[in-house]
């Protein structure tokens, strides 16, 4: 295939990938919204609601390493399409149960587990396939469009979910979700996952690695990538410490500040709008030149935002000013999250070998998913016994300290050796003047 045709095909992939991700993200979030309401209406039990959340998180945590192994070992196109077909069938199964014997908690939990598994395999495989679907120059655009789809779904799904829940029955909603999922299957089947891929061909007669050997090889590969390891460790610490933000934000605004539910919803919407606008900006902007440097500054801003969440507990503010303050803070946080995530993901896409991408991304997801619930449990306990503003302030300082230690100047020079050259050139110009 000629280079011109490959680039045209890559452009097609950009939009097909974006539409497919939008459909799947939007459908999944609207489903989660509607099912959550249904469970609470059916049982009125917080335990039943929490059980459904566990059915979503636990399978992802347990199966992510296996998903990485599968993504590196087998056809990525087959995995993505199979996962999407399984999603369609799972929704179809729930629809059949609701029409024949009436919907039950067991049916909902089973469907949630299946959808969690399919999204794990599809998500890890898609992340591993970006460099095979689009040319290197447009990886940032692909990652930004992917994030844009997720952000748009986060903004629109509560409104659409609430509208559908109020006006259509659950079976009608499930039919709509099934149809959308089937469209995603058709779109994904037209994509060429090997267009720019650099995976090694399996030699006939070559001894195949076992799953355990393959995972060990993935860990050994990671140890030889100090920059990737630094990124992973910083990501893990962020995920753990942001338990302070995830638990504290709702606790402070609802319990301490007595903010009205609709205003609280607006502040969370500001976060999604910030993510969406920054994703759109990065999708048309040139690739970030020094992603590690940009990410370091972004995480430092995130640390300051975390501390800022507790600031109104030190100084009393008028209600309107408080609402505007938190809406601005959350918008900035949404913008900053994209500034950190997108360039770092682009950098990892380029640095990690195609044959190891599945395992590396799955290790990252497993550790992040494991630490986030742990952080939420620990911080949930801390907020019951300590002042919220001091928890946020200490967590903020820990986060900032971690960034300075993990992304120190030596790590920065390793990631971007050209930064030293730039500094040298600037110093020479100053001396000449």
Automatic annotation (TrEMBL):
Main location: membrane
CDD domains linked to this entry: MFS_MefA_like
A single GO molecular function term of this UniProt record: transmembrane transporter activity
Membrane topology: Multi-pass membrane protein
Domain of life: Bacteria
Transmembrane segments: 12-32, 79-100, 106-127, 148-168, 174-191, 227-252, 264-282, 294-315, 321-340, 360-382, 388-407
Subcellular location: Cell membrane
Keywords linked to the UniProt accession: Cell membrane, Membrane, Transmembrane, Transmembrane helix, Transport
GO cellular component, one term: plasma membrane
Record-linked InterPro entries: MFS (IPR011701), MFS_trans_sf (IPR036259)
UniProt protein name: MFS transporter
């Amino acid at each position: 295939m000629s280079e011109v045709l490959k680039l045209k095909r890559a452009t097609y992939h950009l939009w097909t990938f974006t539409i497919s991700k939008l459909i799947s993200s939007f459908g999944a979030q609207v489903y989660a919204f509607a099912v959550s309401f249904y469970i609470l209406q059916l049982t009125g039990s917080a335990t039943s609601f929490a059980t459904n959340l566990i059915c979503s998180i636990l399978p992802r945590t347990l199966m992510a390493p296996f998903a990485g192994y599968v993504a590196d070992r087998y056809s990525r196109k087959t995995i993505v399409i199979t996962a999407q077909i399984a999603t369609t069938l799972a929704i179809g199964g729930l629809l059949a149960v609701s029409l024949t014997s009436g919907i039950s908690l067991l049916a909902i939990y089973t469907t949630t587990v299946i959808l969690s598994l399919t999204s794990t395999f599809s998500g890890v495989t898609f992340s591993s396939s970006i460099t095979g679907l689009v040319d290197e120059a447009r990886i940032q655009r692909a990652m930004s469009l992917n994030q844009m789809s997720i952000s748009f779904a986060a903004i629109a799904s509560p409104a659409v979910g609430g509208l559908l829940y109020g006006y259509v029955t659950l079976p009608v909603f499930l039919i709509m979700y099934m149809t959308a999922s089937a469209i995603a299957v058709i779109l994904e089947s037209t994509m060429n996952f090997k267009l720019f891929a650099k995976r090694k061909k399996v030699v006939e007669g070559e001894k195949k690695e076992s799953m355990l050997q393959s995972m060990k090889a993935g860990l050994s590969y990671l140890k030889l990538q100090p920059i990737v390891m630094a990124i992973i460790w910083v990501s893990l610490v962020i995920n753990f410490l942001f338990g302070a933000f995830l638990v504290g934000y709702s606790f402070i605004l609802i319990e301490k500040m007595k903010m009205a539910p609709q205003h609280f919803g607006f502040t969370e919407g500001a976060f999604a709008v910030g993510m969406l606008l920054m994703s759109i900006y990065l999708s048309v902007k040139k690739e970030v030149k020094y992603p590690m440097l940009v990410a370091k500054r972004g995480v430092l801003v995130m640390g300051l935002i975390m501390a800022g969440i507790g600031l109104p507990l030190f100084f009393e503010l008028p209600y309107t000013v408080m609402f505007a303050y938190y809406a601005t803070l959350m918008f900035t946080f949404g913008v900053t999250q994209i500034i950190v995530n997108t360039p770092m993901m682009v950098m990892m896409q380029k640095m990690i070998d195609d044959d190891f991408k599945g395992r590396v991304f799955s290790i990252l997801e497993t550790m992040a998913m494991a630490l986030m619930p742990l952080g939420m449990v620990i911080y949930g306990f801390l907020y019951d016994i300590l002042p919220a503003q001091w928890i946020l302030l200490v967590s903020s300082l820990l986060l900032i300290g971690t960034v300075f230690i993990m992304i120190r100047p030596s790590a920065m020079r390793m990631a971007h050796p050209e930064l030293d050259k730039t500094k040298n050139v600037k110093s020479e110009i100053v001396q000449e003047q």
